[in-house]
Structure formats: C-alpha cells, structure tokens
Write a structure and sequence with these properties.
Elements (H helix, E strand, L loop, with lengths): L3 E4 L2 E4 L3 H7 L5 H6 L6 H12 L3 H6 L9 H8 L3 H7 L4 H10 L2 H9 L3 H9 L3 H9 L5 E2 L3 E2 L6 E4 L8 H13 L6 E4 L6 H18 L5 E3 L3 H9 L7 E4 L4 H6 L4 H14 L8 E5 L3 H4 L8 H13 L5 E5 L11 H17 L4 E4 L10 H13 L4 E5 L3 E2 L4 E2 L1 E2 H11 L5 H10 L2 E2 L2 E2 L11
Parallel strand pairs: 5-6, 5-12, 6-7, 8-9, 9-10, 10-11, 11-12, 12-15
Antiparallel strand pairs: 1-2, 3-4, 13-14, 16-17
Helix pairs in contact: 5-17, 7-9, 9-17, 9-18, 10-18, 12-13, 13-15, 17-18, 18-19
C-alpha cells in the first residue's frame, strides 16, 4: 500500500493503515484525546488523499484488528457478501464514494452488502456532509417487529418516557404525552433507573398494559442490561424487543459486560419467549467514543470503531439501532460541528451496512452546543432518510440529564418535510383523531384524551 504522499511541497508518511484511518478523520476531540488525530488540516487532507487511493482489497487484506484477536472482527468478516465483494474488490475508496453518489438506490444497497465495516468507515472519511446525506437517502432498510420500520416517506419515533424514580404514573404521563403528538410508532422504550429484575418485569408489564389497552401498533422495550432483561423474560415479562449497548471491539464489549456468546443466548431467548410477531427482535444503541472511554479502542479512531458496531449488530438482524450521538460528552465530540458530523457519519455507516438506523440527536450541557444545533441536525437526518428519532418531554430527559429532541420537534419535522409516522401507527392515530389526512389535528398534543 502507498502510505506516503507529497502535498504542497511537504512530504507526509503514515506508518500503517490504522494511523492513516485515524488521521483522515474530520476533527474529533476523542481522537485528539487518544493521541491519534491529524496534527493539522494539511496532514488530514494528505491522509484523505492516500485513503481515497487505496483499494477495498487493500483494506480487507490489512485488518485493523486481526480476526484471530477479536471476535467483533470475526463477525464483521463473516457478514461480507463474498459474491458482491468480488465484483468491487478492485475499486479504490474514491471509486466507492463516486459509485455510492451516482448509482440508483438498489445498486447502492447491493454495493453495501459487499463492504466490511472498515470500508464503510473509509468512504465516510472522504465524504462531505452533503455526500453522507445523499448516499444515506438511497438506502431503504426495512425491518419488522410488530410493525414495519424504515419505509421511505416515513419518519419513525421512539417515545422515551424516562422518570427519575421509575414512577408508574410519571412514566405513563410521558407515554400519553408522546402518543398525543403521534410519537412512539417505532418503540416505547424506557431507560430504567433501577436495574433489578423485579423492576424490569414491572416496567415491561406497564408499557405492555398501555399498548394493549389502547391497541397501539408499536413495540415495547426496557433498556436495562441484557442479563437483567433475560431474567425478566424468564419470569414472564412481556418483551417485544431485547436491548443492549454495543462497542466496536471485543474488549469494549467486555467492559459492557457482554460477549458474542451472551448475545447469541439472548437472541435465542427473545425469539423463543418474546411477545413480538415479526422476525426482528433486537434494539441496539451505540455512540462514538465508548471504546476509548473503556480503554478498549486498540488505538483505532472513533469513526471506524463506530462502524464496527454496525458490523456486529448486523449479525442479529435488529429491528432498530441508534447512535446516541452527543451523549458521552465534549471529551469525544467537542462542539455542535463535531456532533452534527458524527450524526451524519453514523447514520451513513449504519445504513450502507444494511442497519435500520436511527439517531438520538442529543448533547450534554457541558458541550458547546444548544437546541438550535440539534434542530439543524434533525432536519439534515430527516432529509437523509433516518429511520427514527428519539422524543422526550420538552427535549429534556429528566432522568439521564441530557438534551434530546422533543415530541413536538418530531411532529414539526414530519409536517415540514411531508413525512408520516409508520403506516400502522398512522392509521391508528387517524382513528384516535390525532391525525387527519396525515396532519396533526386540534386534538393533538393533549394527553388528556388517554385519561
């Protein structure tokens, strides 16, 4: 591989593919914290030019973490469609970018099946924000749990009814508030405060009681650790989906208390004992920087590591995946510019690998970002065809203590861009008088209709 280049009278040499990948990234505080970022813009451009000139076969022949050392690498390799790969292996990364931007939707999705996670990350590194939006918009990833997610022309939404004490009345109040805005078609998913089996069983029953009482076409999920959910399901909890956060390396996942073997055991359990009708039973969350925060990054950059999360997720055919893009903090994404870039990168890398990708458009209060920045990213992602966004009351999660998008933000995006909730949920909302001809009615926004 060519790892040296002369640019504007200066020579740049990169020791290996890992360093080249890291220095081709757009500026990220996490890469700087890890000591692997480009020193300046000229070095970054030199790395991008060299990366664009590598072939896909070069990347595959030089794994950034060898499969014999890491089970995530093995899963990623096993997920490549070899027939497609053989047709494109000679392409340079620059050629891949051009093909993704110029080909029709079906061809773009077919190309994605022949890529591994590092190839997807490489393409993202040489794309502009507009490139990432255009390529993502060509990828329609459909999944089915109780309902269908991912159809073009629709913007799904997770209702996130978190409460500081998991109080049943507080949780239900948030659920009804979300439903009144047409939010919750993708999933009603609670982040619990108390990660005990009995509490998780209770929360599964409470969400399912609301769904059953109002005959809502959606799914429920309680975002406890996967082992707690497994114990809850064994005790009879009605779970449509099983959830877990993922990292892009085996050591990163070890810090989360999970392994491939554990995920496979959970997969078998949710398929045998889950309450959903469809074949897609998993909900995964990711986010740039988690591997570095746990010391499991192997000197890899956070964009590549994030892409590897999607290669692992693909193994389990999830119903939904989302990056919690600005949740970890300014140590990994310093300001709104970096958060917006990361959200678009993550969405693209997930979609091109066949992942039903959503985004928690969010930030923490010690980050250089505000709600206007989140509005900007939400519009960009909706234009890019994001499968779903997350809604919390007034965009302020009172339990996790971070800022996200609100129920009425999602409703506004749908109205602005002529998008609809999922088809089954939209029909239900019309029957409830919340929507009429796809638009919110005067009844919308009033949770009292459920009381």
């Amino acid at each position: 591989m060519k790892l040296t280049i002369s640019l504007l009278g200066e020579s740049y040499r990169f020791h290996d593919l890992k360093e080249l990948f890291a220095k081709a990234n757009e500026e990220k505080s996490g890469d700087q914290l890890a000591g692997i970022a480009a020193d300046h813009a000229k070095e970054r451009m030199a790395a991008k030019l060299l990366l664009a000139d590598l072939t896909l076969a070069d990347i595959r022949a030089h794994p950034l973490i060898p499969p014999e050392e890491d089970e995530v690498s093995r899963v990623i390799e096993e997920g490549v469609d070899e027939a497609v790969y053989e047709q494109i292996r000679h392409w340079k990364v620059g050629d891949l970018r051009e093909q993704l931007l110029s080909q029709e939707d079906a061809q773009v999705q077919a190309i994605g099946r022949g890529l591994n996670s590092e190839m997807a990350a490489a393409a993202a590194k040489i794309m502009s924000n507009l490139d990432l939006i255009q390529a993502s918009a060509k990828c329609e990833v459909l999944t089915r749990c109780n309902t269908v997610l991912g159809q073009k022309g629709r913007l799904g939404s997770r209702a996130q009814p978190n409460h500081p004490t998991d109080d049943p009345q507080g949780v239900k109040a948030s659920i009804y508030d979300a439903l009144s805005y047409g939010v919750g078609d993708t999933v009603i998913g609670i982040n619990p405060v108390i990660d005990t089996t009995d509490n998780i069983v209770r929360l599964f029953h409470e969400t399912m009681e609301v769904i059953t009482r109002w005959n809502i076409p959606t799914q429920n999920s309680v975002l406890a650790h996967v082992t707690t959910q497994m114990r809850a399901i064994h005790k009879g909890a009605p779970a449509d989906l099983i959830f877990q956060s993922l990292a892009g390396t085996e050591s990163g996942n070890t810090s989360f208390g999970i392994s491939l073997r554990l995920l496979e055991e959970a997969d078998q359990l949710i398929r045998e004992s889950g309450t959903a009708k469809g074949e897609n039973r998993w909900y995964f969350e990711t986010g740039q920087g988690s591997e570095l925060s746990s010391g499991g990054h192997h000197d890899l950059d956070q964009v590549t590591l994030e892409s590897r999360c999607y290669g692992l997720a693909k193994r389990f055919k999830p119903f939904l995946v989302n990056t919690v893009v600005g949740f970890i903090g300014p140590e990994y994404l310093y300001d709104s510019k970096q958060v917006i870039r990361a959200g678009l990168e993550d969405h693209f890398m997930g979609k091109i690998q066949g992942i039903p990708m959503g985004v928690d458009v969010c930030y923490t209060n010690h980050m250089k970002a505000d709600q206007n920045d989140m509005d900007n990213l939400s519009v960009l992602l909706a234009a890019a065809g994001v499968n779903f966004l997350i809604g919390v009351p007034m965009a302020d999660d009172c339990m996790l203590n971070y800022q996200s998008t609100s129920f009425h933000d999602i409703a506004t995006l749908r109205e602005l861009l002529r998008l609809q909730p999922g088809a089954e949920f939209a029909a239900w909302a019309e029957g409830m008088g919340i929507l009429q001809n796809g638009r919110l009615t005067m009844r919308a926004g009033d949770p009292g209709i459920f009381v």
